[in-house]
Write a structure and sequence with these properties.
30% helix, five-stranded mixed beta sheet, 13 strands, Nucleotidyltransferase, domain 5, alpha/beta, single chain
């Protein structure tokens, strides 16, 4: 397949034609919990189309109950000449995904994917006091002042956080179709389009929560990527709050940027406390692991005045980090946690 980026025509996803081959685009966060494994015990390929990079991970069953291991992985940063969301970005992604899956260790064509954090709006709101049939319109009315999406193009889903609150997620269907067109042109079968905090929660629950003794205790998961940091407040089963902050490892060596990130963390904690008055969060887990300088982690934890620890998803499964094993072909600050959680969905 050609890697040419010259064609400026957007790759189009024909939704009506493909309705039987892809998930319901109105249910863009649908997760597959009972996914049948392939014959070689591999899970679907998790594809994280992030803000900075394209990351693919495929997990497999190991020996023993609930044991999983890394089957294949690859991450590559977007070229500087390619603007995310553009036709050239689509063609670049099609070529890279197709080549990686064809010539790498990946098995099968089934993928569980996610969209960049910047393309998904997430908020926690009080459950509107309306009937089930009116709930969607009530949510849209509540979100309308905050959304930068035309109502006719908004795909909105929600999940129950507790008896009084719901987590609401929205995206622009035209952007979703651009992503689906990439997988269609790469000849892959999309089992589900999930969202990044659900994927991170899934990896955390599967790999760490029990052994850390944090099953029922809310924690802050911080995933520090190159240009952004994903902030998730959750326990092993529930996602309470999610936010993506526009500062990452590429600029957190500057104290002012650390202060700005901590301001974002404080905002998340304040929103959490005001929403879930019976719960407390007192611990940070840096799920970006060893990809980030520990001095940055120390500064963040000290400013937050919270207990903290590093949680590396590769340590959890006894695998060597791909960016250490093959530094030429992988991204140091790749968001491995999200892609791993997608594969394990």
């Amino acid at each position: 397949m050609s890697d040419s980026l010259k064609d400026d025509k957007t790759l189009v996803f024909d939704a009506p034609k493909q309705a039987r081959q892809v998930p319901n685009t109105g249910d863009f966060i649908g997760c597959i919990s009972d996914m049948a494994l392939f014959g070689n015990n591999t899970y679907p390929i998790g594809v994280d189309m992030g803000n900075d990079a394209l990351t693919l991970v495929q997990m497999a069953n190991g020996k023993g109950k609930d044991v999983v291991h890394l089957h294949a992985s690859h991450s590559i940063e977007y070229p500087e000449s390619v603007k995310p969301g553009s036709p050239s970005w689509q063609r670049w992604a099609v070529a890279v995904i197709a080549r990686t899956i064809t010539h790498g260790r990946f098995k099968g064509k089934k993928v569980i994917a996610t969209m960049p954090a910047r393309e998904v709006f997430i908020d926690t709101i009080r459950m509107p006091k309306v009937s089930d049939g009116e709930l969607q319109n009530a949510i849209l009315k509540h979100l309308k002042p905050k959304l930068e999406i035309a109502p006719k193009d908004a795909l909105i889903q929600h999940s129950k956080a507790d008896s009084e609150n719901i987590l609401v997620m929205a995206t622009d269907k035209t952007k979703l179709y651009k992503h689906l067109a990439i997988y269609e042109n790469a000849r892959l079968k999309v089992a589900s389009i999930s969202i990044w905090p659900m994927a991170v929660l899934n990896a955390y629950s599967r790999l760490w929560a029990g052994r850390m003794g944090q099953v029922d205790n809310p924690v802050i998961l911080l995933d520090v990527a190159k240009s952004y940091t994903n902030i998730i407040i959750c326990d092993s089963a529930n996602l309470y709050f999610a936010h993506s902050a526009p500062m990452g490892a590429g600029n957190l060596d500057i104290d002012r940027m650390v202060d700005l990130l901590n301001s974002e963390i404080d905002m998340c904690r304040a929103k959490f406390r005001s929403t879930y008055k019976q719960l407390q969060v007192n611990k940070i887990i840096f799920v970006s692991g060893h990809a980030v300088d520990t001095d940055i982690y120390k500064k963040i934890a000290e400013r937050a005045k919270m207990a903290a620890q590093i949680g590396d998803c590769f340590d959890a499964i006894g695998a060597t980090r791909p960016d250490q094993d093959d530094p030429e072909s992988n991204v140091r600050h790749a968001n491995w946690m999200t892609a791993m959680g997608l594969s394990l969905s």
